[in-house]
Amino acid sequence: MLDILLRIGLAPVLLWQGRNVRRSTLRLPEAAGARYGQVGRGPALRILLLGDSSAAGVGVSQQEQALAGQLSKQLSQDYQVSWQLLAESGITLQQLLAKLDEVRGQYDVAVLAVGVNDVTAGTKDAVWVAQLQALRARLTAEFKVRNILVSAVPPMQHFTALPRPLSDYLGRRARRLNALTTRLAKQTAELTFMPIELGVSPQMLAADGFHPSAIAYDLWAQQVVAQLKSCSDTSQISNK
Questions:
Q1: What is the torsional sign of CA 214, 49, 25, 160?
Q2: In this protein, which residues make up the domain named SGNH hydrolase-type esterase (predicted)?
Q3: Which residue has the higher pLDDT, 186 or 17?
Protein backbone atom coordinates (compact mmCIF):
# COMPACT_ATOMS: atom_id res chain seq x y z
CA MET A 1 0.00 0.00 0.00
CA LEU A 2 2.81 2.42 0.87
CA ASP A 3 4.43 1.80 -2.53
CA ILE A 4 1.15 2.72 -4.23
CA LEU A 5 0.79 5.91 -2.19
CA LEU A 6 4.39 6.90 -2.89
CA ARG A 7 3.97 6.24 -6.61
CA ILE A 8 0.81 8.35 -6.73
CA GLY A 9 2.25 11.18 -4.68
CA LEU A 10 5.58 11.28 -6.52
CA ALA A 11 4.23 10.34 -9.95
CA PRO A 12 5.09 13.61 -11.74
CA VAL A 13 8.66 13.62 -10.39
CA LEU A 14 9.22 9.90 -10.98
CA LEU A 15 7.96 10.09 -14.55
CA TRP A 16 10.11 13.15 -15.30
CA GLN A 17 13.22 11.58 -13.79
CA GLY A 18 12.56 8.26 -15.53
CA ARG A 19 12.39 9.96 -18.93
CA ASN A 20 15.60 11.85 -18.24
CA VAL A 21 17.41 8.67 -17.20
CA ARG A 22 16.31 6.82 -20.34
CA ARG A 23 17.40 9.73 -22.49
CA SER A 24 20.76 10.46 -20.88
CA THR A 25 22.11 7.16 -19.51
CA LEU A 26 24.98 5.58 -21.42
CA ARG A 27 23.74 2.57 -23.43
CA LEU A 28 26.10 -0.38 -23.18
CA PRO A 29 25.87 -3.50 -25.38
CA GLU A 30 25.49 -7.08 -24.24
CA ALA A 31 28.80 -8.91 -23.81
CA ALA A 32 30.11 -10.55 -26.96
CA GLY A 33 31.06 -14.20 -27.15
CA ALA A 34 29.63 -17.71 -26.98
CA ARG A 35 26.42 -18.31 -25.05
CA TYR A 36 26.98 -22.01 -24.52
CA GLY A 37 29.95 -24.26 -23.92
CA GLN A 38 31.61 -27.05 -22.00
CA VAL A 39 34.64 -26.74 -19.77
CA GLY A 40 36.45 -28.62 -16.99
CA ARG A 41 36.74 -32.19 -15.79
CA GLY A 42 34.94 -34.19 -13.14
CA PRO A 43 31.28 -34.95 -12.42
CA ALA A 44 28.95 -33.57 -15.08
CA LEU A 45 27.08 -30.39 -14.14
CA ARG A 46 24.62 -28.82 -16.56
CA ILE A 47 23.78 -25.17 -15.93
CA LEU A 48 21.16 -22.94 -17.54
CA LEU A 49 21.59 -19.19 -16.97
CA LEU A 50 18.50 -17.08 -17.51
CA GLY A 51 17.77 -13.40 -17.23
CA ASP A 52 18.00 -9.81 -18.31
CA SER A 53 20.87 -7.49 -19.21
CA SER A 54 22.94 -8.46 -16.16
CA ALA A 55 22.77 -12.12 -17.17
CA ALA A 56 23.61 -11.05 -20.73
CA GLY A 57 26.81 -9.43 -19.47
CA VAL A 58 26.04 -5.77 -20.07
CA GLY A 59 28.83 -3.79 -18.43
CA VAL A 60 31.72 -5.90 -19.75
CA SER A 61 32.90 -6.54 -23.30
CA GLN A 62 33.18 -10.35 -23.35
CA GLN A 63 31.17 -13.22 -21.89
CA GLU A 64 34.37 -14.50 -20.25
CA GLN A 65 34.19 -11.48 -17.94
CA ALA A 66 30.43 -11.77 -17.35
CA LEU A 67 28.46 -14.04 -15.04
CA ALA A 68 28.31 -16.99 -17.46
CA GLY A 69 32.03 -16.99 -18.15
CA GLN A 70 33.07 -16.40 -14.54
CA LEU A 71 30.69 -19.05 -13.24
CA SER A 72 31.68 -21.76 -15.71
CA LYS A 73 35.38 -21.03 -15.15
CA GLN A 74 35.11 -21.25 -11.36
CA LEU A 75 33.00 -24.42 -11.41
CA SER A 76 35.31 -26.08 -13.94
CA GLN A 77 37.82 -26.69 -11.15
CA ASP A 78 35.50 -29.35 -9.72
CA TYR A 79 33.04 -30.24 -12.49
CA GLN A 80 32.72 -30.83 -16.19
CA VAL A 81 30.42 -27.90 -16.78
CA SER A 82 28.01 -27.74 -19.70
CA TRP A 83 26.29 -24.36 -19.78
CA GLN A 84 23.83 -22.33 -21.81
CA LEU A 85 22.90 -18.67 -21.49
CA LEU A 86 19.46 -17.33 -22.39
CA ALA A 87 19.33 -13.62 -21.64
CA GLU A 88 18.19 -10.36 -23.20
CA SER A 89 18.45 -6.72 -22.20
CA GLY A 90 15.18 -5.17 -21.06
CA ILE A 91 13.42 -8.47 -20.49
CA THR A 92 10.86 -9.01 -17.72
CA LEU A 93 10.06 -12.29 -16.00
CA GLN A 94 6.95 -12.70 -18.15
CA GLN A 95 8.98 -12.25 -21.33
CA LEU A 96 11.61 -14.67 -20.05
CA LEU A 97 8.93 -17.32 -19.61
CA ALA A 98 8.08 -16.97 -23.29
CA LYS A 99 11.76 -17.24 -24.30
CA LEU A 100 12.03 -20.64 -22.60
CA ASP A 101 10.62 -22.03 -25.84
CA GLU A 102 14.13 -21.50 -27.26
CA VAL A 103 15.77 -23.83 -24.73
CA ARG A 104 16.61 -27.43 -25.54
CA GLY A 105 18.00 -30.22 -23.39
CA GLN A 106 18.06 -30.97 -19.68
CA TYR A 107 19.86 -29.18 -16.86
CA ASP A 108 20.75 -29.79 -13.23
CA VAL A 109 20.78 -26.15 -12.12
CA ALA A 110 19.18 -22.94 -13.37
CA VAL A 111 20.57 -19.56 -12.28
CA LEU A 112 18.07 -16.73 -12.61
CA ALA A 113 19.01 -13.04 -12.80
CA VAL A 114 15.91 -10.99 -13.48
CA GLY A 115 13.72 -8.39 -11.80
CA VAL A 116 15.16 -4.95 -12.53
CA ASN A 117 12.82 -4.50 -15.49
CA ASP A 118 9.89 -5.80 -13.43
CA VAL A 119 10.71 -3.11 -10.88
CA THR A 120 10.73 -0.35 -13.49
CA ALA A 121 7.63 -1.79 -15.20
CA GLY A 122 5.71 -1.88 -11.91
CA THR A 123 4.99 -5.63 -11.95
CA LYS A 124 2.42 -6.34 -9.25
CA ASP A 125 3.30 -8.55 -6.28
CA ALA A 126 0.85 -11.33 -7.12
CA VAL A 127 1.95 -11.36 -10.76
CA TRP A 128 5.63 -11.66 -9.79
CA VAL A 129 4.94 -14.62 -7.51
CA ALA A 130 2.69 -16.35 -10.06
CA GLN A 131 5.33 -15.97 -12.76
CA LEU A 132 8.06 -17.36 -10.52
CA GLN A 133 5.84 -20.34 -9.81
CA ALA A 134 5.21 -20.80 -13.53
CA LEU A 135 8.94 -20.60 -14.22
CA ARG A 136 9.67 -23.23 -11.57
CA ALA A 137 7.00 -25.51 -13.01
CA ARG A 138 8.38 -25.28 -16.55
CA LEU A 139 12.02 -25.66 -15.56
CA THR A 140 11.39 -28.74 -13.44
CA ALA A 141 8.91 -30.43 -15.78
CA GLU A 142 10.36 -29.62 -19.22
CA PHE A 143 14.08 -29.36 -18.49
CA LYS A 144 14.39 -31.58 -15.38
CA VAL A 145 16.06 -28.80 -13.38
CA ARG A 146 16.62 -29.84 -9.77
CA ASN A 147 17.75 -26.53 -8.28
CA ILE A 148 16.76 -22.99 -9.28
CA LEU A 149 18.96 -20.28 -7.79
CA VAL A 150 17.25 -16.88 -7.90
CA SER A 151 19.66 -13.98 -7.58
CA ALA A 152 18.37 -11.02 -5.63
CA VAL A 153 17.20 -7.96 -7.51
CA PRO A 154 20.12 -5.56 -6.94
CA PRO A 155 19.86 -2.58 -4.57
CA MET A 156 18.70 -0.05 -7.13
CA GLN A 157 18.84 2.77 -4.61
CA HIS A 158 22.64 2.64 -5.04
CA PHE A 159 22.68 2.86 -8.85
CA THR A 160 24.55 6.08 -9.57
CA ALA A 161 22.64 6.52 -12.84
CA LEU A 162 19.41 7.03 -10.88
CA PRO A 163 18.59 10.34 -9.14
CA ARG A 164 16.59 10.62 -5.96
CA PRO A 165 13.72 10.13 -5.24
CA LEU A 166 13.52 7.74 -8.23
CA SER A 167 16.38 5.63 -6.87
CA ASP A 168 14.75 5.40 -3.43
CA TYR A 169 11.42 4.34 -4.90
CA LEU A 170 12.94 1.70 -7.20
CA GLY A 171 15.14 0.44 -4.39
CA ARG A 172 12.08 -0.03 -2.23
CA ARG A 173 10.33 -1.99 -4.99
CA ALA A 174 13.44 -4.15 -5.49
CA ARG A 175 13.44 -5.03 -1.79
CA ARG A 176 9.75 -5.90 -2.05
CA LEU A 177 10.31 -8.35 -4.90
CA ASN A 178 13.21 -9.90 -2.99
CA ALA A 179 10.98 -10.37 0.07
CA LEU A 180 8.34 -12.07 -2.05
CA THR A 181 10.94 -14.35 -3.63
CA THR A 182 12.38 -15.23 -0.23
CA ARG A 183 8.94 -16.20 1.05
CA LEU A 184 8.20 -18.34 -1.99
CA ALA A 185 11.60 -20.05 -1.83
CA LYS A 186 10.94 -21.11 1.77
CA GLN A 187 7.79 -22.85 0.56
CA THR A 188 9.24 -24.39 -2.61
CA ALA A 189 11.83 -27.18 -2.55
CA GLU A 190 13.47 -26.38 -5.89
CA LEU A 191 13.83 -22.62 -5.33
CA THR A 192 16.73 -20.96 -3.51
CA PHE A 193 16.89 -17.20 -3.02
CA MET A 194 20.42 -15.76 -3.16
CA PRO A 195 20.95 -12.35 -1.49
CA ILE A 196 24.01 -11.35 -3.54
CA GLU A 197 26.45 -9.18 -1.57
CA LEU A 198 28.57 -6.97 -3.83
CA GLY A 199 28.91 -3.83 -1.77
CA VAL A 200 28.05 -0.33 -2.94
CA SER A 201 31.41 1.06 -4.05
CA PRO A 202 31.75 2.69 -7.50
CA GLN A 203 34.09 -0.10 -8.68
CA MET A 204 31.14 -2.50 -8.58
CA LEU A 205 29.32 -0.57 -11.30
CA ALA A 206 30.04 -0.35 -15.02
CA ALA A 207 30.51 2.96 -16.82
CA ASP A 208 26.75 3.45 -17.14
CA GLY A 209 26.25 3.50 -13.36
CA PHE A 210 23.60 0.81 -13.71
CA HIS A 211 25.13 -2.57 -14.59
CA PRO A 212 27.76 -4.72 -12.84
CA SER A 213 31.46 -4.26 -13.51
CA ALA A 214 33.86 -7.14 -14.21
CA ILE A 215 34.77 -7.17 -10.50
CA ALA A 216 31.09 -7.42 -9.54
CA TYR A 217 30.46 -10.26 -12.00
CA ASP A 218 33.41 -12.17 -10.52
CA LEU A 219 32.12 -11.75 -6.96
CA TRP A 220 28.59 -12.66 -8.05
CA ALA A 221 29.87 -15.89 -9.61
CA GLN A 222 31.82 -16.71 -6.45
CA GLN A 223 28.64 -16.48 -4.40
CA VAL A 224 26.71 -18.68 -6.83
CA VAL A 225 29.51 -21.29 -6.64
CA ALA A 226 29.47 -21.12 -2.84
CA GLN A 227 25.71 -21.67 -2.84
CA LEU A 228 26.05 -24.71 -5.08
CA LYS A 229 28.86 -26.17 -3.00
CA SER A 230 26.90 -25.62 0.21
CA CYS A 231 24.81 -28.65 -0.70
CA SER A 232 25.86 -31.36 1.74
CA ASP A 233 25.40 -34.00 -0.95
CA THR A 234 26.64 -33.02 -4.40
CA SER A 235 24.07 -35.33 -5.95
CA GLN A 236 21.57 -32.62 -5.05
CA ILE A 237 22.99 -30.43 -7.81
CA SER A 238 24.33 -32.94 -10.30
CA ASN A 239 22.87 -35.98 -11.99
CA LYS A 240 26.35 -37.53 -12.16
A1: negative
A2: 49-218
A3: 186
Phi (first) and psi of residue 154, to 5 degrees: -65, 160
CA 37 to chain CA centroid, nearest Å:
20
- pLDDT per residue as tens digits for the range 73-98: 999 999 999 999 999 999 999 999 99
Q: CA neighbours within 13 Å on the CB side: how many for 17?
A: 17
What tens digit of pLDDT does each residue of 169-189 get? 899 999 999 999 999 999 999
Q: Which residues contact 177 (CB under 8 A, 6 or more apart)?
A: 115, 118, 119, 123, 128, 153
For residue 12, cis peptide bond before it (omega within 30 degrees of 0): no
Predicted confidence at residue 11, as pLDDT, reads 63
The whole-number average pLDDT for the span 204-224 is 94
Q: Give me the helix-helix angle, 166-187 and 2-24, nearest 10°.
A: 120
The b/e string for 103-138 (b: 16+ C-beta within 10 A; e otherwise) is: beeebbbbbbbbbbbbbbeebeeeebeebbeebbee
Distance CA 32, CA 30 (A): 6
Contact between 110 and 83 under an 8 Å Cβ cutoff? The reply is no
40: left (phi over 0), alpha (psi -120 to 50) or beta: left
Domains of the chain, first to last: 32-233 (3.40.50.1110)
